[in-house]
Amino acid sequence: MAALIDCRKLVVGYGGVPMLPCIEVDIEPGVFCCVVGRNGSGKSTWFKTVLGLIPPVSGEVIHKPGLRIAYIPQRLAYDAIYPLTVREVVSMGLLKAGGFLGIPRIRDGEIQPALESVDAWKLRAQIFHSLSEGQKQRVLFARALVADPEVAFMDEPTAAMDVVAQREMLMLVDCIRRERKMAVVMVNHELSVATHYAEQVFLVDRTTNVVVSGTAREVFSSPTFAELYGQEKANDLMKELEHVECDLRTAEHKGHTHDHDHDHGSHA
Question: Virtual CA dihedral for 190, 195, 200, 202, nearest 10 degrees?
């Protein structure tokens, strides 16, 4: 299966000065990728480079021809300036790349399914900046979904939420990702997000000049991770990962048992 995004010998940084070592990583269709690292580690710089917001120092980022990309920021820059309704914010997702800044004609037939998919249609008439942080992220996610993206880039989407809202948002993102076969690339400071959801983890650290890419198990069991976060933290995450994998195996077994019983009953 062809990659949606291919980072080839990519070096990121500012003003021609490298921030991280050479990066070779692909974003495959439907994958959930978590980008992790300490504050100031270079996560946002890699993120912006892959999105095309800043140029690479060297190497290249290759997007699949016609790739539909959505970007979900932590907040809207004009949130407190313009009293936009939820419907207006979501309708902005219908603007084509390179279009004029503004609000397109609102077509409920297009934005209603997106808002309903994130359980926010009831908020459509409310002013966006009056919403809770969890509600705002749901609306921003709906704004991305109206463009039917193949990959969604999410920058710390749960940063300002309480624990319950975080869990609900992450479960929602993962559910929609699976339904739409949409790739998600998420920067998140919560390492446990990677143990519960990520199929691919990308660890960067500019201080030690390292990049590690692989599954959550491969990254969290690496000597590099233990050096950065401590062996105790690495052990805790590995235990958490084992619990998650055990729960998945149990759920799969119950599913197979149910299917077998159903098939057996149909032939009785």
Answer: 40
pTM score of the predicted model: 0.86
Q: Reduce the DSSP state of residue 122 to 3 states and report it.
A: helix
Q: DSSP 3-state assignment of 90? A: helix
pLDDT tens digits for 173-201?
999 999 999 999 999 888 999 999 999 99
Instruction: Report d(CA 7, CA 58) in Å as an integer.
Output: 11
Nearest to 45 by CA among 74, 18, 77, 76: 18
- Nearest of 128, 120, 216 to residue 172 by alpha carbon: 120
Share of the chain above pLDDT 90, in %: 65
What is the distance in angstroms between the CA of the first residue and the CA of the last residue of the chain?
41
Residue 176: closest CA among 129, 223, 115: 115
3-state secondary structure 177-207: HHHHCCEEEEECCCHHHHHHHCCEEEEEECC
Q: In what order do the strands lie in the sheet with 5-11?
A: 23-27, 5-11, 58-63
**How far from 262 is each of 80, 249, 253, CA to CA, in Å?**
55, 20, 14
The most distant pair of C-alpha atoms in the chain lies apart, rounded to whole Å, by 72
Q: CA dihedral defined by 263, 266, 267, 268, rounded to 10 degrees?
A: 120
For 43, other C-beta atoms within 10 Å of its C-beta total 24
The residue to which tokens 């980008």 are assigned? 35
